[in-house]
């Protein structure tokens, strides 16, 4: 198993942990829950778990070792995430209907692993820095993915099932 396969296996293991939290009976909440976290410094880790309708999460991380693990399910859920610094990582699991995620990463190590299950889905990923990767999977009937990467490593993998699929991927320079 090479280094990249080990890294992917590690990230998918973390996503399974999030899924376990996501399905936990202790995780349910009332409607209209919003989360806003602004983290700076080193070792910034945000774990957001929202179940129900009309949830939103707005996470801003700056510094070293930024990690965001998000699980949302329900109707009208959204994520706005911004990471700046070294070693940025986002693992996202959203399910339901009318789901949106907007992710901005600047810096080194950039990674986004997303998974949206449901209908009326939309993801927008912008990465600028060094390691750039994004893997996205969607289901539903109004799929959309926009990814723009600029810096060095550029790896993108998008898989969509459904009806009105759109995927626009713009990579910058270096090794596409």
From TrEMBL:
Top-rank taxon: Bacteria
Signal among keywords: yes
Keyword check for Signal: yes
Keywords, in A-Z order: Signal
Annotated signal sequence range: 1-29
UniProt record similarity statement: Belongs to the CsgA/CsgB family.
Protein name: Curlin
Organism per entry: Shewanella psychropiezotolerans
């Amino acid at each position: 198993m090479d280094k990249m396969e080990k890294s992917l296996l590690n990230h998918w293991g973390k996503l399974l942990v999030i899924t376990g939290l996501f399905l936990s009976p202790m995780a349910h909440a009332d409607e209209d829950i919003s989360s806003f976290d602004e983290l700076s410094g080193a070792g910034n880790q945000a774990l957001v778990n929202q179940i129900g309708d009309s949830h939103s999460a707005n996470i801003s991380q700056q510094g070293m070792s930024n990690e965001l693990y998000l699980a949302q399910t329900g109707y009208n859920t959204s994520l706005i995430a911004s990471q700046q610094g070294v070693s940025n990582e986002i693992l996202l699991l959203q399910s339901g209907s009318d789901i949106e995620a907007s992710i901005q990463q600047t810096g080194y190590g950039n990674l986004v692993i997303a998974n949206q299950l449901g209908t009326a889905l939309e993801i927008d990923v912008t990465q600028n820095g060094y390691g750039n990767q994004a893997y996205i999977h969607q289901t539903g009937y109004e799929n959309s993915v926009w990814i723009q990467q600029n810096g060095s490593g550029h790896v993108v993998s998008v898989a969509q099932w459904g009806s009105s699929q759109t995927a626009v991927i713009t990579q910058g320079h270096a090794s596409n």
